[in-house]
Structures are given as C-alpha cells and as structure tokens.
C-alpha cells in the first residue's frame, strides 16, 4: 500500500509540475496561445556569430530564430550558414539550437541562380527542419520555387523590401502567387511597407490567407526609406491595430523581430520591444 501511495504521489507531482510549466510558458510567452511563434531574424545580430545570436535570443526569452545565409556559425566553426554547410556544420547548428531550446523555423531572405541552386536551398531547409523559406525570386524562377514547395513540402514566402524592389507592393505578391503552389505565400515586412508609404494594416488585409511569416519592426518615421528602428510601440507602426488584424485573420506562424539599428547593442532594444509586444498581447 505504501508503494502504491508513493507511486501515486510521484504521478501527482509530475502532473503538477507539468501544469506549472505550461502555465508559466503561457504567462511568459502569451503569444503562443494564439499560435504565434515570436522570435528574431538572426540578421538583427549580423555583427555576431549564429551561436552568439542564439545567446541573445535566449536572453530575450525568444524560442524561435530565422537564420540568414552567410552568417558565421561560431562556437569554434568558421563555416557560414546556408546550403553549403558541411555535415559537421549542420550537426553543430542542430546542437547549438538544442542547447538553447531554440527552434530554427525560417530561413531567408534567399535567392538562387538557377533551378539546381534552388533545389539545394530547399534540400538544406528540409535537412534542418526549416518550415518557411523567405524568398525574392525573379519571375522566371517563380514556377521553380512552386514545384520545390510541393516536392519538399516546405513553405516559401515572398518577402517585400521597400520600393522599388520587386515585391514591395502586396498587389505584386498576389499576382505572383496566382496559379502556384498553396505552399507559396507572403513574408510580410511591416517596416518596409512603412518605408514605402504603405499602410501596414491595409497591406495585411490585402494578403489575408496568404501570410506565412512576418518581419516585425517599428520605425521613427513613416514614408521615409531612411527611417530607423525604434522600440515597438513607440514609433509610427500602429502596433495594436496590427496585432488586432493578425488576430482577426487567425494568423498562425512566426513573427521575426528584425531590429536594424544600434547594431552593436541591439539585444536590449529587442528585449524591450518583445516586452512591449507581450504586454499588449496579454
């Protein structure tokens, strides 16, 4: 009888611990109950290695990362992030991610010279467990990307840099998606829309049903290509309106903090922005 009671006590404590852990996670990362994966684009920490970027993400309580091609891996490796990574380099990246409890969810923004190189990009993403590749292909490569989405069962999202880049306007994105794989969608950069003089909420509405990923920024000016990042909620981005629109659309996916200012010390800026965002979510 004592053995049974002890066993039941252990089970009860385990359930209690799991319940506490779940509630703690929900409290610390309230966006997760909406199906939102809040993380950072590693380019925010482009002056540092990927290993160092993971440290900075972890200190901001972010559990997801969007890698970009060309960043040095670090942790003793001089290899660069991308499909050229050796087997050893890929194992190291997976090890670093596991140690920090960070998920490599997205990769980009990436392009390719031809169908063969695009295939290497997708094969790399599949091997690394990446769910979304953020891309800016030429018109001639749209069908190539579409076929590879279906072949590898990986999403590809068309990313908007500011005007006059190819995908700066949602109308161009929608036109490019016509007749192509359902795994092709949009990587919405709200900051770049603002730089192009576009209303980010209106753009999100235009792309409803096609948004796979977001690059999240707040800027000190609207309609100025030289505008710079500020803490979320303190600039010209209608942050609460953007949050409400994403909720209305029942968006599910990753939001990448992409802070392209104060490069040497941007970790604190990201932490403040994330805290501001989570207060509004709560």
UniProtKB/TrEMBL annotation:
SUPFAM superfamilies: Xylose isomerase-like (SSF51658). Residues 74-263 form the Xylose isomerase-like TIM barrel domain. The keyword Isomerase applies. InterPro entries: IolE/XylAMocC-like (IPR050312), Xyl_isomerase-like_sf (IPR036237), Xyl_isomerase-like_TIM-brl (IPR013022). Keywords: Isomerase. The keyword Isomerase applies. GO terms for molecular function: isomerase activity. It holds the Pfam family AP_endonuc_2. Signal peptide: none annotated. PANTHER family: HYDROXYPYRUVATE ISOMERASE, INOSOSE DEHYDRATASE. This is Sugar phosphate isomerase/epimerase.
